[in-house]
């Protein structure tokens, strides 16, 4: 029976070998087809990528090291004093000119009143000086008349003296004849002496009148130096008083602190009743309508980057659905490492080359920024079209 069974199994073994070979051939053929398809897909992908790079990719540089920035405005009081009112809080939107806080204006108002009083006094002194010039001018004219009168008196005294001298000489010539008494001769001598004294007095009066006129002229010249060529509004003393009034009025106005720009209040550091110092920052306003992008590109990426080139920006807060368009307005003057507070020093020889980055400033389209507002510090991705450099 064993011999009979053996011939029956032989045909089955012979038929299984061709079946396995056919399956293996099919599998190999299928693998070849998939490999060919994969090679074709890879080749097509490589061709598409090469075409994209030649036409577009090589004209674009991009970075994810980019953030939203702004020229933030620090609010600093220009006068010192106690805060009597705080009208804003953090995250509040304000417009330029809105009142942020109020400082007690009492001292400033007192200083203003004092400055206004000083201005009134300066105006009064100028008017007084002008009136004094008129009085001195009249005094000079009167001095001329006094001199003329004194000279006339001198001439009269001199004439009287001449007459008295002649009378005395005539009587002295008659003394020997006995025609003139001793008493009459003495009287003539006294008359001559009196006339001589009158001449001396008249000369003194002339000198006094001339000195008075000269003094009046000096005072007039000094007074005219103060008022000549000036009006009440252009007098130096009045102008100085006006300046003090303006400064005091400005201090009163500065007691009300207003927003310098449109934006959002942040980092408010002032409380009601607090005494603030002049120039000390009390809050910051972020002008969200004037934000820009600060993108840090690798040095090799900047070979063809120029100011004025267009850029596309996407922000992580909105994702790729929102795209901003901007323009390069500036390239940093130094790398971040060179501008650090403590720059790196490689004088020891232990030096490893590190790829540096330069900040590039990109201004955004205000309309797009208004439609999709951003905030300072948000992360962005920037892509610059450098085809204009070709």
Q: What would CATH call the class of the largest domain?
A: Mainly Alpha
The CATH homology group name of the largest domain: Helix Hairpins
- In spatial order, strands of the major sheet run 1-10-13-12-11-14
Known CATH architecture of the largest domain: Orthogonal Bundle
Helix fraction bin: 40-55%
Class derived from helix and strand content = alpha+beta
Radius of gyration, in Å, reads: 55 Å
Largest sheet: 6 strands, antiparallel, barrel
CATH topology of the largest domain: Helix Hairpins
Separation, N- and C-terminal Cα atoms = 93 Å
How would you state the average pLDDT, rounded? 81
- Estimate the strand proportion: 15-25%
How many discrete domains? Answer: 3
* Extended strand count: 14
Please give the count of helices.
5
């Amino acid at each position: 029976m064993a011999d009979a069974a053996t011939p029956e199994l032989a045909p089955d073994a012979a038929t299984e070998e061709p079946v396995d070979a056919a399956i293996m051939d099919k599998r190999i053929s299928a693998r070849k087809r998939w490999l060919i398809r994969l090679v074709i897909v890879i080749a097509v992908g490589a061709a598409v990528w090469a075409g994209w790079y030649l036409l577009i990719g090589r004209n674009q540089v991009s970075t994810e090291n980019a953030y939203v920035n702004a020229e933030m405005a620090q609010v600093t009081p220009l006068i010192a004093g106690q805060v009597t009112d705080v009208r804003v809080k953090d995250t509040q939107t304000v417009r330029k000119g809105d009142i942020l806080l109020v400082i007690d204006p009492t001292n400033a108002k007192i200083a203003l009143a004092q400055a206004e009083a000083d201005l009134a006094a300066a105006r009064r002194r100028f008017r007084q000086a002008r009136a004094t010039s008129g009085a001195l001018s009249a005094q000079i004219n009167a001095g001329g008349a006094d001199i003329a009168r004194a000279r006339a008196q001198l001439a009269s005294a001199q004439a009287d003296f001449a007459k008295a001298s002649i009378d005395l000489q005539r009587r002295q010539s008659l003394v020997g004849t006995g025609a003139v008494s001793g008493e009459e001769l003495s009287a003539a001598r006294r008359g001559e002496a009196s006339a001589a004294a009158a001449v001396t007095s008249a000369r003194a009066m002339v000198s006094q009148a001339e000195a008075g006129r000269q003094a009046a002229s000096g005072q007039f010249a000094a007074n005219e130096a103060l008022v000549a060529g000036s009006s009440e509004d252009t007098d130096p003393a009045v102008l100085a008083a006006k300046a003090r009034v303006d400064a005091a009025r400005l201090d009163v106005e500065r007691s009300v602190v207003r927003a310098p720009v449109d934006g959002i209040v942040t980092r408010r550091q002032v409380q009601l009743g607090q005494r603030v110092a002049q120039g000390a920052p009390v809050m910051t306003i972020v002008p969200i309508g004037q934000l820009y992008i600060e993108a840090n590109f690798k040095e090799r990426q900047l070979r063809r980057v120029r100011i004025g080139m267009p850029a596309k920006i996407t922000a992580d807060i909105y994702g790729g659905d929102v795209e901003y368009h901007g323009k390069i307005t500036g390239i940093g003057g130094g790398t971040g490492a060179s501008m650090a507070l403590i720059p790196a020093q490689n004088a020891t020889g232990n030096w490893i080359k590190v790829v540096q980055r330069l900040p590039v400033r990109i201004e955004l389209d205000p309309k797009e920024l208004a439609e999709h507002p951003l905030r300072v510090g948000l992360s962005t991705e920037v892509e610059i079209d450098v085809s204009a450099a070709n």
